[in-house]
């Protein structure tokens, strides 16, 4: 079963309106913003971006969680942060166009 364009647009608007960053925007502004967004579904364990990648996207978590981490010199993985539904990440690199930190 495919999702209609209108349903996908409404889901984008709803997802944006639930974030701290965008919740104060009017419906008109949310619709405009949603028109510039793309919906991505990532597999569990997928890498969204790496440190130093260009900051070309801002992300809103609609389902699941995103873990931020790095490999330690001894081979272990160090987790810096864990974000969930309604949270936004990648905003700094997106806003300044610089590399991901």
Would you kindly provide a written description of the structure presented here, covering whatever features stand out?
- The chain has 101 residues and is of the alpha+beta class.
- Strands 1-4 form a two-stranded antiparallel ribbon. A two-stranded antiparallel ribbon has the order 2-3.
- The chain has 3 helices and 4 strands.
- The protein has helices spanning 5-17, 27-35, 91-96; strands spanning 59-60, 66-71, 77-83, 88-89.
Please give the share of residues in helix.
25-40%
Could you describe the largest sheet, including whether it forms a barrel? 2 strands, antiparallel
E-strand count: 4
Quick one: overall form? Answer: globular
Range of strand content: 15-25%
Using the CA coordinates, give the radius of gyration. Answer: 15 Å
Reading the helices and strands in chain order gives: HHEEEEH
Question: Spatial order of the strands in the main sheet?
Answer: 1-4
Unreliable segments (pLDDT under 50, ≥5 consecutive)?
Answer: none
Structural class of the secondary structure composition?
alpha+beta
Q: Number of helical segments? A: 3
Distance between the termini: 39 Å
Mean pLDDT: 89
């Amino acid at each position: 079963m495919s999702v209609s364009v209108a349903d996908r647009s409404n889901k984008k608007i709803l997802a944006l309106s639930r974030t701290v960053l965008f919740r104060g925007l009017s419906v008109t502004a949310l619709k405009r913003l949603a028109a510039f967004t793309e919906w991505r579904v990532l597999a569990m364990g997928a890498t969204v971006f790496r440190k130093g990648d260009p900051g070309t996207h801002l992300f809103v978590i609609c389902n699941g969680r995103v873990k931020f981490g790095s490999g330690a010199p001894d081979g272990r993985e160090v987790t810096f942060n864990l974000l969930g539904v309604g949270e936004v990440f990648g905003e700094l690199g997106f806003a300044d166009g610089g590399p991901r930190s």
